[in-house]
Structure formats: C-alpha cells, structure tokens
Write a structure and sequence with these properties.
heterodimer; A: about 5% strand; B: Rossmann fold; six-stranded mixed β-sheet; 10 helices; 10 strands; binds adenosine-5'-triphosphate; binds magnesium ion
Chain lengths: ~290, ~260
Amino acid sequence: MDALQLLVAGVSQGCVYGLIALGFVLIYKATEVVNFAQGELMMIGAFIAYTFINILAWPYFYGVLATLLSMAVIGVVLERLLIRPMLGEPPFAVLMLTIGLGFLLRAVAGAIWGAEPKTLSTPYASDVLQLGEIIVGYGNLAIVLGTGVLCLALFLFFRYSRLGIAMQAASQNQLAAVYSGIPVARLVTGVWAVSALIAAIAGVLVAPVSLIDPQIGFIGVKAFAAAIVGGFGSLPGAMVGGLLIGIAEQFAGLYLPPGFSDVTAYIILLVMLFVRPQGIFASMMQKKV
Amino acid sequence: MSDLLTLSNVETYYGPVMAIRGVSMTVRTGDVTCLLGANGAGKTTVLKTISGAMEPQKGEILFNGESLKGLAPDVIARRGIAHVPEGREVFAFLSVEDNLKMGAYSRRDSRVASDLALVYDYFPVLRDKRRQSAALLSGGQQQMLAIGRALMLRPQLMLLDEPSLGLSPKLVAEIADIIVRLNQEQGVTVLLVEQNAAMALSRSDFGYVLENGRIVMEDKAAVLADAPDVQEFYLGMKDDGVRGGRRWKKRKTWR
Ligand SMILES: Nc1ncnc2c1ncn2[C@@H]1O[C@H](COP(=O)(O)OP(=O)(O)OP(=O)(O)O)[C@@H](O)[C@H]1O
Ligand SMILES: [Mg+2]
C-alpha cells in the first residue's frame, strides 16, 4: 500500500506545481511574457492569508476571501506598474524584471513576516481521512479538491464566458483583437489578476500542510519545469506536467538514493526536451503578430 | 454628401524610414473608395495609420469631424472603424461563430443576434461551418470570416486591405460583389486597398493611386480606369514601347 500512499502525496504536491504552472502559462499566452515571480506570488498569498487568519484572527472563510481579493488587486497593480511600461521592450528584459520582482517580494516578505516558518491555521487541516490503509490528510484533500474545482471553473470560464473567449482571442491574434474593438490592454491586466488569484489559491491551499517562509516561492522553478513538460502554452498541459512531476518526486524519494527527489523535476524536463520538445500537449499557440 | 474620413498631410514612419509622405485623402460617406498602388507603395501603412495601429508623425486624421489623434486602435474600432487587415487575420483556434461574436465584443445593443444571422446570410458557407475552428477554413472562407467579423462591429467605415489577395478569380468576384452589397444594403462606407486595380476600380466610386508613400493621382473611379497611366501600370494594358521604362515617380506633373 506504500505506492498508493505515495501516489496520494504526489498528486497533492503535483496540484501545487500545476497551479503555479497555470499562472506561468496564462500570462505567457496573453502577453508572451514569462512571469518568473509566480512562485513568489503564491508565497505572498500564503502570508496574506496568514495575516488575516492567524494575526487578525478573521474567520477562515472571510480571511481566504480577503486574501483572494488582495492578491487580485496586487496582480492588477503589478501589471500596471511594472509590466505595461515595458511594452515593446524585448521579452528578455521583461523576464529579468520578473526575476527581480521575485527577489523583491522575498525581501519584502522577510521584512514583514520574518524568516521564521509559520503555519496557517484552518478549521480542517489537522484531521485525516482513513481509507483502508491509506491515510489522507484533509489538508491534502483540500489541495486536490480545490485544484479540481479551480480547473473546472477555468475551463468553463475560457470555454463559455464572453470575457474568457475574448482573452483567448486576444492571445491568439492580438492585432485582430484590437481591430475588433476588444480592449486588449484591459484584458491583459485581467489575466494578471487571474494569475495572481490562482497563485493565492495555491498559497491558501499549501499553507496549512507545509510551513510558510519567504523561500517557499522557489518551488516556482519546479512548476516552471512542469509548464514546459506540459507544453508551454497549454493550460491542461500545465496541470498534467505538475502532476507528473509531483508524483515522480514522491517515488524517486522512496526508491532512489537520497537527493534524487529534488532533481526529479529537472530530469523529467531534460528527458521531455529530448523525446518530445513540444511538451505533452503540443502548444496550441501559433501567434500572429 | 459629407466627408466621413479625411487625412491631411499625414506622415508615418517605420523607425527612421518615412513610409507615408504627406498623404491627403477623403472618404465620403456612403462611397466605396479605393486606394491603389504597387507592392510597398504604403497602402497598408495608410490603413494602419487610420486605424491607430501606427501613430502618424505629422498631419491630421478626422473621422466624423473628430480627430483620432492619440486614440488606441481598439478605441478607434469602437468609434466605428473596422479594419480587415491584410492576410486574413482570424482567431484560428476559436470557432467560426465565436470569431464573429468577438467582432461584436464591444457592442451592448440587442441587435447582435440578428446581425449574426445577417452575416450568415451574406456568407452561407460560414453558417455551415460555424462550429468548426477558423483554422480549418480555406483562405477564401477565412477572408469571408474576417469581413463578417468586421461587419459584426456595425462599423460606419470598413477598411479592407487586399481582400482579393491569393484568391481564385471567381472568389475575387464573389467577395467584391459582397463588398458592394454591404455598402449598398448595410450603408457601410468602404475604403478598399487593392493591387487588383481592375476589380477595385469597377466597384468603387472614387479612387486614389499611391506611389512611394505619396498620392500621385485621384479621381472618380471611372475616370481613373480610363487614364492611360493607370491602364498601363495597374490594369496591365501596355501601350507597346511608347512609355517603356518610365516610372510614376519621375512624373512631377500629377497634381
Ligand atoms: N515593419 C516595417 N518596418 C520597416 N519598414 C516597413 C515595415 N512595413 C513596411 N515597411 C516599408 O514601408 C513601405 C510601405 O509598406 P506597406 O506595407 O504599407 O506597403 P503596401 O502598399 O501595403 O505593400 P503590399 O502591396 O506589398 O502590401 C515599404 O517600403 C516597406 O518596405
Ligand atoms: Mg499591404
């Protein structure tokens, strides 16, 4: 039953990678910018939740709601303040900017909340679900369920809502979108808000099961690998890539010598780049500019 | 009739390269106006400057008497100028119907649904393929989709950039006829950019000829079609030997 137990842990960790990878892919599809601070946004989201729920002692539900709202606003502000002025600059410059933003966010988080690890308290996280011999913590269950619901919501949003379809249109052909009167600049801001929101959800889900400190955003690097494995530009691919890496890590941790677990993501990435460089889900993006 | 669009002394640059060198032209309400010119003459640049994708360095563009200066292209589109760009720019991975609906994204009125039906009446093939993704359409069908999407904006003015490019003669005629019908039946004023001068002049009320970023000739379309230089250079009716080697730009006497 070891394998099943590992699978459960892997899926839960993989969901977290997948959520961050979703943020990478969303922003990339909308703007061709890679936001390397996506992991740090998750970290900030976790700390904001900790502030509302643990420090200010708001009820869990309202604390989470306030966190999601704050992060959406932060996403909007970042896009307006940092990204939009970079319009027309080479993607490389914007990439460096987002790496710098990651450093800045870590420093700010260290200054505000300190380097000491924290745990977000929740009404549920200490309970476990016993399924035969497998034990699933409610915290992990929440990650999987939360991710599932979010993916469904995103799917419905992009498939059926006017706004979601317009976001797709803008990412497929920016010129045709503006000529059709679609306010592309505003939609890009919206995409940043959604990405920050997803990062916040990841933060809120992960904070109860693992300690929060300013360094947790570094898992963004593995999530980035997940996004590439999934075929950068594909939202389902981002989730699948995340799950694949999350599960493989757990098994590598048990069956391979110590230390392998941490490099599993990169090994999978390298193998994928050799075998199928376009990723699992070949990107649906053929951009016309 | 009144002037819907006027350009006065417009100059547009690509970096240091001046592509449009002081263009002045007028599009009158209700007309089909064509803009002819060889490759690289600057036709596309003129349209991009009107629709706000490029900012003119000098000069003024008035639409309905109001300046378009500094407006973003999506704002200009919402003012009533629909630009159908060169090369059938569709949303490749959206369905045909979603492409059309995106044309009406900025509209809040209740006639969007009936306009969708209208577009399908003009282009029945789009109705048949409405659930398919636009990438699966043929070139001609994509051109129809791009025009249909522009119509969904309910524009006062439609800018069409070489809609005939790469289409069979039969399809060229079909699309040209639909452009005329849109103009007459839907009251859409049209500015048509073409290299296919024969098609454009036979469907237009008024025409301009652009060369090297300058307007070198302008007149009623019927008059232009009879002009010897237009016949030689744009309609391919060469007057053997007499004008051999002479280029438009060498003639200083056009205006
Ligand atoms: N992106 C660009 N950068 C620099 N110069 C450009 C660019 N696009 C066009 N030009 C130049 O501007 C001039 C006008 O180009 P434009 O595309 O407007 O011509 P056109 O009349 O539309 O030609 P075609 O019939 O081939 O479409 C050309 O000399 C071209 O070389
Ligand atoms: Mg052109």
